[in-house]
UniProtKB/TrEMBL annotation:
<keyword id="KW-0805">Transcription regulation</keyword>
<dbReference type="InterPro" id="IPR000847">
    <property type="entry name" value="LysR_HTH_N"/>
</dbReference>
<dbReference type="GO" id="GO:0003700">
    <property type="term" value="F:DNA-binding transcription factor activity"/>
</dbReference>
<dbReference type="GO" id="GO:0003677">
    <property type="term" value="F:DNA binding"/>
</dbReference>
<keyword id="KW-0804">Transcription</keyword>
<dbReference type="InterPro" id="IPR036388">
    <property type="entry name" value="WH-like_DNA-bd_sf"/>
</dbReference>
<keyword id="KW-0238">DNA-binding</keyword>
<dbReference type="InterPro" id="IPR058163">
    <property type="entry name" value="LysR-type_TF_proteobact-type"/>
</dbReference>
<dbReference type="Pfam" id="PF00126">
    <property type="entry name" value="HTH_1"/>
</dbReference>
<dbReference type="InterPro" id="IPR036390">
    <property type="entry name" value="WH_DNA-bd_sf"/>
</dbReference>
<dbReference type="InterPro" id="IPR005119">
    <property type="entry name" value="LysR_subst-bd"/>
</dbReference>
<protein>
    <submittedName>
        <fullName>LysR family transcriptional regulator</fullName>
    </submittedName>
</protein>
<feature type="domain" description="HTH lysR-type">
    <location>
        <begin position="1"/>
        <end position="59"/>
    </location>
</feature>
<comment type="similarity">
    <text>Belongs to the LysR transcriptional regulatory family.</text>
</comment>
<dbReference type="Pfam" id="PF03466">
    <property type="entry name" value="LysR_substrate"/>
</dbReference>
Amino acid sequence: MDRFTTMATFVRVAELGSLSAAARALGLTQPAVSQQVAALERRLGVRLLNRSTRRLALTEAGERYHAQARRILEAVAEAEDGLAEASDVLSGSLRVHAPAGLGQAHLAPILIGFQQRHPALAVELIADDRYADLIGEGVDVAIRLGALASPGLVARRLATLRRILVASPGYVAARGSPETPEDLAHHPHVRFSWAAAGDAVPLAGPDGPLEVRVQSRFLANNAFVLIEAIRAGIGIGGAQLPLVQPLLDRGELVRVMRGYAYAPLEVHAVYPSARFVPRRVRAFVDHLAAELPRIPGLER
């Protein structure tokens, strides 16, 4: 059995903590993965994994071998990538994770254009609003909004995303438009369900940041659902400007409380911390850094 294949399989098992998860990621059966790890242990003459019915854990020898094997695999990948530096051709696979709203509305066209420029590259976009496990899910680069809380990741700031308060024209005609934070507290609010606990929303105003207690009437974990709720006249809500600018231009939404807004969010590209970053990842992040500031509501 190929030494590098068994090494790569073991590294995947160690990172995912599961034979079945590694099998899914590698496109193999669980018995095949188990056989490769067992063959590696026999060849090395040591136990690398402690197996139980519930989980796998690295032995002390397994931890040392995992660190060394990962460095070797990265060095091999770097050597192969270096041979391609003389060519403009990007190949291999690129797996991108992004928030659903921004991913569907703006990142998808950018990613499609990038693939058309590099037709030998296979790309995949995963658009949802959860925080993906980059290593566990084999994600090459993730686009994240706001503060970065995950250790062990490399991040590059790409842009700043503006968020404003909006309502439907029908809502404003029926209920009026708030002018102050105190007014906003008396209007029904539409907001993300995973936002800060309670009914306080953080705003940025002329005197700096503040929190306003609001009456949450509709919550969802998807930006497009929230925009539809605002369009339906349920209440006032904060919206990402790149997603609602076309609706503002057509008069389907109106901005309220122009002196106040949700705090802007930093947009970062993040990828697993490693000495070697594949050329296709570097090229895509450079492409994003050039394209995102062209979108209204995203600023360099």
